[in-house]
Structure formats: C-alpha cells, structure tokens
C-alpha cells in the first residue's frame, strides 16, 4: 500500500494544524477562524483585545449550538461565554474576559502538530512586548491564494465533527457518521434521533486540497463559486438498486469532482472509474483512517477493520460494478497529481 506524501505547501501546514494539532478544546478552531477574519486588517500586529472579538464570537456561536466545547468539564472562559449568551454579561465584559482568559494555551499550542512545532508560522507571539500577535508574511501569502476561502469552511466543518463527538461523550475517533441519500450532508444518530453535522463537501475537501478527485482541476467549497465542487459517488449512484452493493451512500464512496468530470460532455455519469482511480480512492480512505481523522471509525465500519479487508471490499465492489456498467471512464489530468 502506498500512502499520500503531503506536500509542504502553506495550505498543507494550515490543514495539518486543523486536522492534527492539539485538540482538547475547540479554541484552536476559533483562533483559526479568527485569523481568517482578520486577514484584511490594516496592520500585521493584532492586539489581544482586537483578536478577542472574533475569537469569542465564534465560540459563543458554537456554544449556542453544542454546549460541550472540549474534553475538560469546564473553564472560566467558557463560563463567561455562556453568561454572555444568557444575557448575563455585556459585550465589553465578554471581550475583557476573553483577553484575560481565552488565549492562555491556544496561542502557544496553535503551531504544535504531533508534539513538535511547525517550521512555518502564521503568527508570532508578541504578548509580552506588544500585548498581541503579529501575522506573518506566510499568513498573508496563504490568504491571498485562490483557495483561501475554502480554509475557513474546512475549519468549521472539522469543528462540527469534533464537537458532535464531544457532545455524544465519545472520542471523535469513534463517531459513526452517515451521509444522506444524495451524499451532500453528514449526520449521526443519538437515541434514534438524526443529528446533522456538516456538509460532505466541506468535510472531504481537506484531503483533496481544493482539487477534483479525478482530473486535479481547481474546485472550491465556497457557496456561489463558479468552481463549486460536486459531491460524487465514485461507484455511481445508479448501482444502489443492485443488492450486491451495500451502503453506496457511505463516506467511503464519496469524492469531490469538478462539474466537467461529474456531468460535463465527457463526464463520468454512470460509467465505472478506471482501476487507477480505484487505487486513488483506496489511498484516500487509508489516509483518513491512518491519520485518525474523525471519519476513521465510519470508514472502517463501512469497508473493513484491516487493510486486507478494505482492499477486498473495494475489489469486490469494482467487480460487481464492472459486471453491471461494463464501460470504464478516465479523464485527462488537468494538473499534476496533488494527492
């Protein structure tokens, strides 16, 4: 089995923070979204009082949705956010509490991935000298890229997955996630009640790096974009009527595709992707499993707990599909491989 070798691009560094950084509370997600909010700041020096506004706003929004925002029982900062949501604190009081309590650990830990600091920094800590943080040139390069709008959406999606697991009192590595019939939204169950989590498009984009799964053309997850990605069933949805196929709407079978590959003149439609693309799907699923992504447990439940079982599952799925669909499909690549 070959695994994905992540390129050390600025997007990769950012996504490594969101996917694999320290994660005992949701402050990392709130800080990431706040940095994106402040990208148009007229100065690179962001005072803690300025940072406190978007940081507390994002946390208050999520607390109103799901009260549990970490593995610890509580914190004085989250208590202040809850009091603001309940009308017991003013906005100024919330900003003051955030400045004093909200950044105790998250600024130090933000760039720490797998117990080591990243060589690229998106801000430097200047709390002692200037009572704030200073955005770096690499941060501004990151947000100037065409896909920068996707990064905030991906961060929000990851946050939704993790907080849902916390709310259910299970490890985010064990949450079972389902996709709806069209594959566009992810949800889980609690006491036979369906709980919506996030968009499939937003959750899957981090691995694909804003590229089409099939041809590597640029795609986006930003609503309204002309390059908005389609959520595609790798094994076509038409196979759902055949009993040989199980859980065709499962996350294991969903990828992001450009409109031309999915439904253009020479698009895939109901054709069966080429074997090289099947190998790419296996690499994608194995990457999410071995990197302990929140979709890990779901993928193993859907395809097998061992690599050999998952390989056999995909081969059997391919054999069944080939017998029904006959024709294979493979597009011409539009860019160099990105994953």
Structure, explained:
This protein has 339 residues and is of the alpha+beta class. The protein has two domains: 134 residues; 182 residues, no CATH class. The chain contains 14 helices and twelve strands. It has a three-stranded antiparallel β-sheet with strand order 1-5-4. Helix 3 crosses helix 5. It starts with 9 loop residues before the first helix and ends in a 10-residue tail after the last strand.
State the gist of this model.
With 339 residues, the chain is an alpha+beta fold.
Helix and strand arrangement:
Elements: H1 10-20, H2 27-37, E1 45-47, H3 48-65, H4 76-85, H5 91-102, H6 106-109, E2 112-113, E3 116-117, E4 123-126, H7 127-130, E5 132-135, H8 137-143, H9 148-167, E6 178-179, E7 185-190, E8 193-199, H10 200-208, E9 230-233, E10 254-257, H11 259-263, E11 272-273, H12 275-290, H13 296-303, H14 307-325, E12 328-329
Parallel strand pairs: 11-12
Antiparallel strand pairs: 1-5, 2-3, 4-5, 6-7, 7-8, 9-10
Helix pairs in contact: 1-9, 2-3, 2-9, 3-4, 3-5, 4-5, 9-10, 12-13, 12-14
């Amino acid at each position: 089995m070959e695994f994905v070798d992540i390129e050390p691009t600025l997007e990769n560094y950012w996504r490594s923070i969101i996917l694999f950084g320290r994660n005992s509370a949701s402050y990392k997600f709130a800080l990431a979204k706040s940095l994106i909010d402040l990208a148009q700041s007229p100065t690179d020096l962001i005072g803690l009082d300025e940072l406190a506004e978007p940081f507390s706003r994002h946390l208050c929004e999520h607390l109103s949705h799901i009260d549990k925002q970490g593995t610890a029982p509580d914190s004085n900062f989250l208590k202040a956010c809850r009091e603001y949501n309940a009308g017991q604190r003013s906005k100024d009081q919330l900003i003051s509490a955030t400045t004093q309590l909200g950044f105790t650990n998250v600024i130090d830990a933000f760039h720490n991935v797998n117990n080591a600091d990243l060589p690229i920094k998106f801000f430097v800590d200047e709390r002692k000298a200037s009572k704030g943080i200073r955005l770096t040139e690499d941060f501004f390069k990151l947000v100037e890229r065409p896909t920068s709008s996707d990064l905030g959406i991906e961060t929000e999606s990851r946050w939704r997955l993790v907080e849902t697991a916390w709310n259910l009192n299970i490890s985010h590595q064990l949450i079972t996630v389902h996709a709806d019939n069209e594959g566009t939204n992810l949800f889980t169950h609690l006491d036979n009640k369906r709980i919506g989590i996030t968009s499939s498009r937003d959750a899957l984009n981090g691995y694909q790096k804003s590229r089409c799964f099939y041809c590597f053309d640029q795609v986006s997850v930003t609503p309204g974009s002309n390059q908005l990605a389609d959520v595609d069933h790798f094994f076509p949805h038409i196979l759902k009527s055949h009993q040989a196929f199980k859980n065709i709407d499962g996350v294991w079978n969903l990828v992001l595709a450009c409109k031309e590959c999915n439904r253009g003149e020479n698009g895939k439609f109901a054709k069966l992707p080429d074997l090289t693309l099947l190998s790419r799907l296996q690499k994608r699923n194995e990457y999410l499993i071995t990197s302990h992504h929140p979709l890990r447990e779901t993928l193993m439940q859907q395809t097998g707990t061992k690599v050999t079982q998952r390989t056999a599952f995909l081969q059997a799925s391919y054999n069944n599909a080939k017998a029904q669909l006959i024709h294979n499909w493979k597009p011409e690549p539009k860019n160099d491989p990105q994953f």
